[in-house]
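Sat 14:20. Reprocessing the chain from the morning session after the first attempt stalled halfway. Input below, unchanged.
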Amino acid sequence: MARRRPRRAGAPRTPARGVRVSWSGDEHSPITTMRAWPAASLAVWAAARDAGRCAPDDVLHTLGDFAQVHEVDAAETSGDVLSLLDIVSRNAHLAVRMPAPGDAQGLPPGALTQAAMTAGEVLLLDPRPVGAEGVVDALALIPRGTPERCRWTVLRSETPIAVDRLSSDLPLGELEYELRDAVGETAQIIAGLSGARAASPADLRDALGALTEARRIDLPPHDNPRVDRVLASAAQIDAIVALAGSGTLGVTGAQHDVADERLRELASLTRAARTAAINTCIVDYRR
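Finished this time. Tokens:
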């Protein structure tokens, strides 16, 4: 069972913040790391709350890891973090998607998908009562913001979406196997990074550690160790891809094109694996 790291009673909260990582010695082009995946975290913690596996305050603490203030921006209404928690309550289904240009992850064309691609993730909700199935005009929560303020845009899908199917359409076991193969490949990428920049091994190790931590998703108590393994591997590979993508790995243009294409494939794999892991956890909670 995975357990949330305890916060010492009475201790002040550490504000959410971005971290600027420069591992190449070039202070003019560092990578800014901010805590990633607020929508995925909201989805899984809200599902755990509804299942009685965590307290409502735990969801609030989790959101505080991403930004000090959360605001809801919807056509019908606006609100604060409590309004956000109310929106994700009492829905038939929840599902997370992490689309990117060229990889919509099954989302239909339209403004919702474009906004989700820009943000990198979306939380889809079937607003009908529990037990409903099939397509629906889904609600979508899309986060954008800074460590100080996160704004959640609420959209309604222009095309009906079967949220219940999106919550279980990615095979977690197969994706875990693909991640294992990718881990070996990323070892070669790290070797390329070490030789491509004038940075010490300690600098590279620190940069990877900071990026991996920023991409990690802190889960509520649950009973699926495969989810933990997949999320850990995805965060590590994603961090390596981010570092590799910040520089040129190939010497020639052709080598760079090949490397760039493979990095996109690895990024797509980590998005799919992370999506499947979070949705698996949500489905487990809602059984």
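The chain has nine helices and eight strands.
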